[in-house]
Amino acid sequence: MKKEIIQIQSLCYSYEDKDDVLKDVSITIKEGESVGVIGPNGAGKTTLFLLLCGILKPTRGSIRINGKEVIYKAFNRSVGYVFQNPDDQLFSPSVWDDIAFGPMNMALPGEQVTKRVERALDICNCKHLANRPSHHLSGGEKRMVAIASVLSMEPEIMIYDEPSASMDMRSRRNIINLIASNKKTNLIASHDMEFILETCQRVILIDSGKLIRDGQVSDIMGDFELMEKCGLEVPYSLINSKYPDSRTA
Amino acid sequence: MHIELDKYAHINSHVHHWDTRFKIVSLVGLIVGFSFINKIVLLPFILIISFLLVYFSRLPARYLMKRLEYIIPFLFLAVFLLSITSGGEILYSFKILKVYKEGLIIGSVIFIRSIASILIFFVLLETSPFLQTMKALQALKIPSKLTGLVFFTYRYIYVYLEELRKMKIALRLRGYNNNSVLHSLRTNSAIIGSLLLRSLEQAERICTAMVLRGYSGNVQESSRFSARASDYVKSLITLVIILVIIIIQKTMP
Amino acid sequence: MHISDGVLNGNIYITGYAITSLITAYTLKKVSEEDIPKISVVTSVFFVASLIHIKIGPTSVHLVLNGLVGILLGMAAFPSILIGLLLQAFIFGHGGITSLGVNAVIMGVPALIAHALFELRKLNPKKSFVLFLAFFCGGISIFFSSVLLSVFLILSEKEFETVAKIAVVSNIPIMIIEAIICLFVVKFLLRVKPQLLE
After folding, report:
1. Between chains, do C44 and B148 touch, taking CB under 8 Å as contact?
2. Of A143, A160, A239, C123, which alpha carbon lies 20 to 30 A from A130's?
């Protein structure tokens, strides 16, 4: 049995001006799992992620990571969050500085920082970009650098918010390969069902703040009625493929 | 940072119904009038005028008090500094600390004047929707380049506030805390630089989009202000009050 | 570095408005209508940036950045600062409508000086010199602002003399911080988009 790395228990959250963004959500995630989080816009996916990072404080319920309660507003180096818009994350004069930012805040010695930056650049195939300013990169390059800037902190859990949004085919493929080869615990929110199908074994469906279903990718995403009810669509490849499970294997 | 505007802009009161153009001119005139007052006997009167105006505007007093709370510490600091640094006659002394009469007096004058002025300003601010106030400034023949600047700037403040908010979250998630001053200066400079770059690139796109929609450099806002007799009356009363307090101030020994 | 309503004598507020009107009229002539969107977005960025707090020890200071506005916007810096202050007064509602003219002079004139000083980079386009100028402009504009503030205070009431001196001295740490920020931002822009500073 692998250990349970994330334990969410009857989590509720309300914003000041919006009640019940999350209602009584309980999820357990094991180490090394890749979990897709799907649901329509405004379902509460991003809120869930921000709660996991300790940026928001649960109204009720608890979140434990590695058995320890998430502390509100405290830096948690075991959770890395890749923003939906890379521009929110990248701000340094060069790609290298951006990727080194996290490790430097972790007060690692200089050679460690260098090593981590190089490793992250290597994983994301961004070595050639190291000295370029982040502002001048293409959309796909920016996304890869944003991922590298989180990977360099070597968190145990990676959270991706809409990683394939506005990516061209090649960039999207690169991200899929990167996530698929990553042995960490991954949480991925996306409207790109095929993307989830290729990167995750398990999927969590949220709608209007409630956990609707939690289970195997093909079971949930192949359920025509359920998907329709939540304003989602069954991915094309699941409609046509007789053995949908073979794709996720 | 949460900015709340227009919370009480739609209450039904005589001040709310005052034409915004007339209101701006009259109330700013009143605040300017207040700043000429330095006779102590007149201070209660300007406070009363401002309280009356707040009363007529029907703005919730508790809300105004809460907003005043931000300003009062600064005013106290000013009074304190003035009363220990200037004047000749010592009222009270404690070791090296000496409280001077003249400093205390002028400090108190400034304190009351400021409270009265800021209350009037709150009334001006809270009794019309923000955009209407800006349009009224435009109707008051402020150069079109300036009003253009106001509207564009106002529009984009919210865009960049949101960007700054997100960038700050992203920083925190990568372990940033402003412990070391130099690191914090460098990080904040990079953020300001990034925002500047993005804004300038955005400005180019805004321009293209505007030119494509027929913009030729002049934002014409149709102003829909029309003054009624009551607007003239209200402004006239204010003008009389301003003149009376200034004349009393000038003729008093 | 703001003066609020009710602090100064009425004559000074009116003088402030007079000076501000003259400078605004002159500087606006140098601005073409097509540049309005560009100046506006930069103004809104500075508005937002002035909300950034820098923590020094137990206290924190917020940024003024008027030197940087001067460097980036040139003559347009003055109307930009005027609008920034107007919006600040109305959005935060901490007062500052009668003092708008005075505050615009306090913040805007040093921005124009910073612009003029930064022009000196044309004499010596070496990067280190440009960075030095940025550092100098960022700091000196805060110094000039605090001096102008003091002048207005003393002109209004002579009792303000000591308070005015305290204001100048207490701004020294801010001067240093603004100088460093200005240096870093210019360094950033030189690296990422040097055309902006040409």
Report:
1. no
2. A160
Residue B116 belongs to some domain of the structure? yes
Q: With CA atoms as reference, report the closest residue to A8 among A56, A70, A73.
A: A70
Prediction pTM value: 0.84
Structure tokens at B164: 């700054």
Tell whether B171 is covered by a domain.
no
- Token look-up 């209101």 returns B23
Residue C79's domain comprises 10-197
CATH number of the domain where residue C48 is located: 1.10.1760.20
Most A CBs within 10 Å, among C48, C52, C188, C190, to test the A interface: C188
> Is C191 in CB contact (< 8 Å) with chain A?
yes
Residue C1 domain-assigned (yes or no): no
3-state secondary structure of C97: coil
Taken as a whole, chain C contains a residue count of: 198
Could you tell me if residue C5 is inside a domain? no
Distance from CA of B167 to the nearest CA of A (A): 5
Helix or strand run (H / E) with residue A29: strand A18-30
Task: Tell me whether residue B179 is in a domain.
Answer: no
C31 in a structural domain? yes
Residue B206 lies inside a defined structural domain of this protein: no
Cα–Cα distance between A198 and A193 in angstroms, integer?
Answer: 9
Q: Which amino acid is at C146?
A: S
Q: What is the pLDDT along chain B (253 residues), one digit of tens a residue?
A: 446 677 888 888 888 889 889 999 999 999 989 988 888 888 999 999 999 999 999 988 888 888 888 888 888 888 888 888 877 777 777 777 888 888 888 888 889 999 999 899 989 988 988 888 888 888 887 888 888 888 889 888 988 998 999 999 999 898 888 778 888 899 999 999 999 998 888 888 877 777 666 665 555 555 677 888 888 888 899 898 888 888 888 887 7
* ipTM of the complex as predicted: 0.91
CA distance A66 to A30: 10
What is the bridge-based pairing of β-strands A60-65 and A4-15? Answer: antiparallel
Contacts 24+ apart (CB under 8 A), B138-143: B138/B221, B138/B223, B139/B21, B139/B223, B139/B225, B140/B21, B140/B24, B140/B25, B143/C24, B143/C25, B143/C28
